[in-house]
Amino acid sequence: MQKQRRAVSATTGNPNSRQTREMVEINLMRHYPRTQRKLTRPRALDPINAAAALRFGREYFDGSREQGYGGYRYDGRWIPIALDIVEHFGLKAGQRVLDVGCAKGFLVKDLMDVCPGLEVFGLDISEYAITNCVPEAKGRLVLGSADALPFGSGSFAAVVSINTLHNLERSRLITALQETERLSPGRSYVQVDAYHNDAERDFFLGWCLTAKTFLKPADWRALFAEAGYHGDYHWTVLEMDPSVNDFGASGAGPNNNQAERE
Fold this sequence. Notes:
Elements: E1 3-11, E2 18-26, E3 37-38, H1 47-53, H2 58-62, H3 79-89, E4 96-100, H4 106-114, E5 119-124, H5 127-131, E6 141-143, E7 158-162, H6 170-183, E8 188-193, H7 198-207, H8 217-227, E9 232-236, E10 245-246
Helix pairs in contact: 3-4, 6-8
């Protein structure tokens, strides 16, 4: 896996000691299938769609593509991501991992499958998702918010949060990053929505229903520093490729088998 390293001063488990470690910009979602976003018009233009999505209920997960995933079902696509996470953090049986924004627990299940004996837990704001989680995640998912994690400091070997934290306003997002750091100092991974230019930003604004904080990579790094976040990270940037993403008049219908986190 290609990694870009950045040296930072990171707090270790001892609050009185500091050591230099390297934050890593790494794409742990590199094996995730390309997702088609093809609708006849930008879905975010309709406030009804955004209102439905922000309830994070049935409409968002298992309703229409205009209001969310268009069907959030397990299909095994998280297995290679789970393998990369285990390798990246050197995870072993008996260690504890937390997935913040776990939805229906697909990654929780796959992490336990690829690393037998790993203790994996999830947290999500959606009661619907937790109630309808995969059987293997039953009893391992907690209802809650990323900016108030109900776990003890240093209680996890790693914390991951993929395409979730950007759903918080800036102040709450900073708190969520601090909470992530508290649970697993320097051993975490977050992936957030980003853009490089106006064209990517405009397309994002037509698609996104839930993100409240979306920045250029340099601005995200500044926010990480402001929060005191020392874990690893990467971006979700919507492809400017009409064969994959298009709000044209082609009439292409939504892909109803999506498992992305938006």
